[in-house]
Amino acid sequence: MRDEFGREVRYLRLSVTDRCNCRCLYCMPADGVPMMRHDQILSFEQMRDIVAAAASLGVRKVRLTGGEPLVRRGVVDLVRMVATVPGIDEVCMTTNATLLAPVAADLRDAGLTRLNVSLDTLDPQRYARITRCGRLEDALAGLEAARRAGFAHTKINCVLVGGLNDDQLRPLAQLARDHDLTVRFIELMRMGECASWPASRFVSADEVLAAVPELEPVGGEGVSEVYRAPGWRGSVGLIRPMTHQFCGQCDRIRISADGHLRPCLHSAASVDLRGLSGQQLLDAIRRGILAKPKGHRMQGGRASDAGRNMNEIGG
Ligand code: SAM
Ligand code: SF4
Q: What spacing in Å lies between the alpha carbon of 40 and ligand 1's midpoint?
């Protein structure tokens, strides 16, 4: 289905929990945020019904996210349920990978097609500082288990944070020299925890091109600009929500763990889907798609209008 501005919505990001085993500096406060009650969170059956309704309106790709999707008990079963919804071609997951190693093969068997792994540094101390409670070795073990389970073309998501990882852009990018991976550098978005951070924390993705001058542009993939360097096995992506507006290509809607459809990450607008089924559910999803704004308003360093932290909306 197309939105009011002619954009075809084919991609649904489903937050399966607002909980997380980490507390990344830019995403959550050190002692967490008030958690949704268990009875507020959608059941797997409700999630499947929402995905099926969205699929009947043209959604083809689902990404499970959070919070940390792997802290939700039974998430392998949810993958299986979503993967068998008619019309859904791809079921992906965004994860910090620290809990991935023991379940990577089960996720693959259940029908998960692709993984995005968040990894902002390759230095164990910095990793502990950024995530506050994560261990780099667990995330790397998760990545290795994913490779062994047969996941191909995994994407590494690396959020650029001035003073924390902007001196490590070359080694991070070089993961794509040595492995069949895409390393995507994402500009930190001014929202939630980091809404009032100083400008020095917000690093332009141009810094990646300065640190790795051999990168050459080869096109685009969704909201990401893709670069390659001669002889490298993988590629590098740049996602620039702050310095380049790509809202014209936006094809996604989001569902929060408590069942609210968010037409845009950076707008407070939402449509409550809880308790709806059949025609009412379809109509509500249609309303959500038609409520997609033309674009966000973060240019010039202005903070997002999201009004909630990333872990609550589903990043
Ligand atoms: N816990 C999972 C993970 O970390 O991959 C999934 C949820 S997390 C909210 C999804 C992605 O959002 C992560 O890659 C994280 O780095 C990114 N993220 C969180 N806050 C952000 C911000 N303010 N700006 C840009 N990316 C952000
Ligand atoms: Fe958790 Fe992901 Fe947020 Fe880090 S970015 S606190 S891993 S939800």
A: 22
Is the beta carbon of 27 within 6 A of some atom in ligand 1? Answer: yes
pTM score, two decimals? 0.93
**Ligand nearest to the Cα of 239, by number:** 1
Q: Is 257 in the pocket of ligand 2 (CB under 6 A)?
A: no
Measure the CA–CA gap between 187 and 162, rounded to whole angstroms. 10
- For residue 95, what is the enclosing H or E element? strand 90-95
Q: Which ligand is nearest to the CA of 256?
A: 1
Q: Measure 53 CA to ligand 1 centroid, in angstroms.
A: 27
22 contacts: CB under 8 Å, gap ≥ 6: 28, 68, 96, 98, 131, 132, 133, 134
Contact 107, 93 (CB under 8 A): yes
Q: Is 99 in the pocket of ligand 2 (CB under 6 A)?
A: no
Closest-CA residue, ligand 1 atom 2, reads 95
Strand partners, 61: 11, 90
Summarised one tens digit per residue, pLDDT across range 80-89 is 999 999 999 9
Give the integer Cα–Cα distance in Å for 193 and 190.
Answer: 8
Q: Which long-range contacts (CB under 8 A, 24 or more apart) does 71-77 make?
A: 71/17, 71/19, 71/20, 71/21, 71/99, 72/16, 72/17, 72/19, 74/44, 75/16, 75/103, 75/107, 76/103, 76/106, 76/107, 76/110, 77/44, 77/110
95 lines ligand 1 (CB under 6 A): yes
Q: Read off the pLDDT of residues 141-190 as tens digits, 9 standing for 90 and up.
A: 999 999 999 999 999 999 999 999 999 999 999 999 999 999 999 999 98
Q: Write out the two tokens for 139.
A: 């995330």
Distance CA 232, CA 147 (A): 18
Q: Output the CA 68–ligand 2 centroid distance in Å.
A: 6
